[in-house]
Fold this protein.
Amino acid sequence: MRKLAVLGIGLALLVTSCGGASDDNASEQPDLAMPQPADRAAIVARDAWSDLRIEGDEVEGYATFVDMRDAADAVVVGAFTSFSPGRGFQGDAAEDQMWYINGTVEVSEVIRGSWIAPTTIEVEFVSSAPDEATLEADLAALNAGIGGGDTILFLRDKGGDEAGLLRLVNSYGLVTTTSEMPVDVPLGEVPVAEEANGLTEVQDPRSQWATLDEFITDMRS
Amino acid sequence: MHWASNRLRCLSALVLVSVLIGGCNFGSDGNVGTGGTTSGVWLQPDRTVAVAYRDMTAFYRDGAEWILAGQYQPTDLTINTSIKNTAGCGTNVCMYDSAYGNNGLNGWNSCNPGHEAGSDPNQTCSEQWVRINQTYSPPRGRIVCHEFGHSVGLRHTNEAASCMRRTADGGTSETLTTHDRDHLNGHYN
């Protein structure tokens, strides 16, 4: 009987560890109170952010959000109002075309980076669209799906030839409320169960803060 | 009966050990947006993978040759590489290297929409684009090992000895681990 119990535990761990990404996501959601219905109008579905997700090998990594805040060139609170086509890039190969998507953010508070005026800024996102038709479709989806929700952004001024252009510090640099979680990182990699992969080294905001307001308050201090 | 019990005990131990040591860093996690755009990790449709170097610099192309031959060819994958100087990808994996700018990424992998089949975690993509960002001059062996790993189904891992550990988490390896190879051999056999 005891051996069967050991086998059961082993298999349960294996299933937890090797399930698909979406299954892992579902199984890891902490039991946090969701926002009240009155707040839901501004909440964006997590899937709506998917066109801005690029799972690449990122340059910048931080152990905590406080470390990320202190290293960022600017940290702002605001809301996305629109997405538009940004710069295009032509690589050496003819089909190696890349575009940026510009997200316009109405800034309500500057936590760090007094050089940013609390008005409107544009943030560049890498698009994985291989052609302009796909880019247009992605922009339409983003404009239809995202807007209005409070977001905290950890920003980097690109510097050099790209000085004045802003990007997120990394994929954990956009924290907001989504339809799935009160405090979410919709562009970040979802941690895989039983495997401290990548970004789990940053505090997982989904289990550290109950509300976005609490998160923002901590970032102010 | 005793024999069966021992087998059960061994199986349980193996399962537990494999989970504790390596977790599971294999399987597609492509995000399909409304526009059909995907980015992330996909499997190859089959064990034979054609790789085209598209107008790559000799530095990164040589690095790719070295890594594919030394790390991936010894697995159950069969890698066929070529230099392609005509427009268009049209093969399983195309590699590009350019100075894409300060976008925060050493490299990334994407799937050309319309080439996907199946669903996560077993979704395949028969035309994937690996990009290496020369803006950051990532170490060639490491970035090729990492991004090509995504194009055959490997996800990020916490194993320090694996090239699939993210640079942002301190990853410096340019080799696959036994755990990574076991995933590849388990799927592409």
Notes: The helical segments of chain A are 2-18, 21-28, 65-71, 132-145, 205-208, 212-220.
